[in-house]
Amino acid sequence: MRRLIASDYLFDGCRFMTNHALLLEDTGEIIDIVPQGAFEPRDAYFYPGLITPGFINAHCHLELSHLKGLFNTGTGLIPFLNDVVSQRDFAQEKIDEAIQTADAEMWTNGIVAVGDISNKTDTIGIKRRSNIYYYTFVECFDFLQNGSDAFLKPYLEVYDSFTGLPRAMVPHAPYSVSPSLFESINSVNSSAHIISIHNQEVNDEDQLFISKQGGFENFYRKFGFSLDHFIPNGKTSVHYTMEHLNPDFQLLLVHNTCMSDTDIRSVMKWNLNTFFVTCPNANLFIENKLPDYRHFTSCNANLCIGTDSLSSNWNLSILEEIKTILKYQSYLELGEVLQWATSNGAKALKVDQQFGSLKSGMKPGLNWIQDIEVAGKEVRLKENARVQKII
């Protein structure tokens, strides 16, 4: 049975619309966007506030969900990484339960598609039965220990385990992947794959590549790995990525907390199919720092939003990420950031034929955002704005 859904505002993935309703099939497929005058208001289900497409979480670590609440905030990235590496092993039953709970939390919070990092196979079961679309990034690192096949083998086994699900083999970060491991990653993937890599999350990362300074050398030494062989190239870390990663891949650069507009322009010139993923609440949790989004908007960069993991966040809610961005970067407008969370994220994961926009023939999921206000012509979120999934 078809039904009409209306609201004060519809956000179609790019812009706000008023005086329109959505005509839907029971399956959630959009049949048409109907202008006022072409339908009787009494025939529509009215949701006061704002309706958006389902949200896209472009960066998550679902398999770390069992680490929720275990780590202190504001420690900085290197101490945080030390905690994750040394404390992530728990009873499998607890890990599985936390993964299932986190998947349900994202679905309830209106998330319909996720770019998810996996170092292990713990999330395969939930990904096969979830209502959420997952693109799995099987993440590799070798602590810059060039030429060690011992690191690659277990990741290939994880990658093979995800056969039948959308996935790619990806590098963890510039500071943790050697040239030979980059070469192996390039050889496993085709140009159809999407690649994700953590980028310039902390100043120590750039310091390592510019002058071999910062905290990573001591961090690796604690785990028994030497960087005596490492020679800095005198450039920021993203140039190392550009040197070793195939530019034919669609690329997600994640965090980018310390990224300059000069680096952004260099990346966009090198690979036009680059999306810059911001995870603001995780950045505040770990480093108490946010990117300067003006660097990205001034370059017309493609931005999208991720939650990171429950080890580095208080919840898995794209709406809460949007609220954080707008709270601390007040020069941005809601419509701009909603685009990051919907249509841009769908393009980043190559699922924009189904998700991210309100268009005929699509099944994007529908979110009802309550507690909005209008100042002039600008739609804004109130402090207690909340999301409820309609479809």
Quick synopsis:
The mean pLDDT is 96.
Q: Give Rg in angstroms.
A: 21 Å
What integer is the average pLDDT?
A: 96
The number of helices is 13
Structural class: alpha/beta
The counted number of beta strands is 15
Shape: globular
Task: Assign a percent range to the helix content.
Answer: 25-40%
CATH fold category name of the largest domain: TIM Barrel
**Terminal residue distance:** 14 Å
- Our count of domains comes out at 2
Task: Kindly report the name of the CATH homologous superfamily of the largest domain.
Answer: Metal-dependent hydrolases
Q: Can you write the helix and strand succession as a string?
A: EEEEEEHHEHEHEHEHHHEHEHHEHHEE
CATH class of the largest domain: Alpha Beta
Main beta-sheet strand count, sense and barrel state: 7 strands, mixed
Strand content: 25-35%
In the CATH hierarchy, the architecture of the largest domain is Alpha-Beta Barrel
Describe the model:
With 391 residues, this protein is α/β, with parallel strands linked by helices. The chain folds into two domains: 3-52 and 360-389, Roll (Urease, subunit C, domain 1), CATH 2.30.40.10; 55-348, Metal-dependent hydrolases (TIM Barrel). The chain contains 13 helices and 15 strands. It has helices spanning 77-87, 92-108, 124-129, 149-161, 179-188, 203-211, 216-222, 237-244, 261-270, 280-286, 293-297, 318-328, 334-348; strands spanning 3-11, 16-17, 20-24, 30-35, 44-53, 55-60, 111-118, 133-140, 167-171, 194-199, 250-255, 274-278, 302-305, 366-375, 378-389. Strands 1, 2, 3, 4, 5, 14 and 15 form a seven-stranded mixed beta sheet that branches. Helix 9 links the parallel strand 11 and strand 12. The two termini are 14 Å apart. The model has no long low-confidence stretch (mean pLDDT 96).
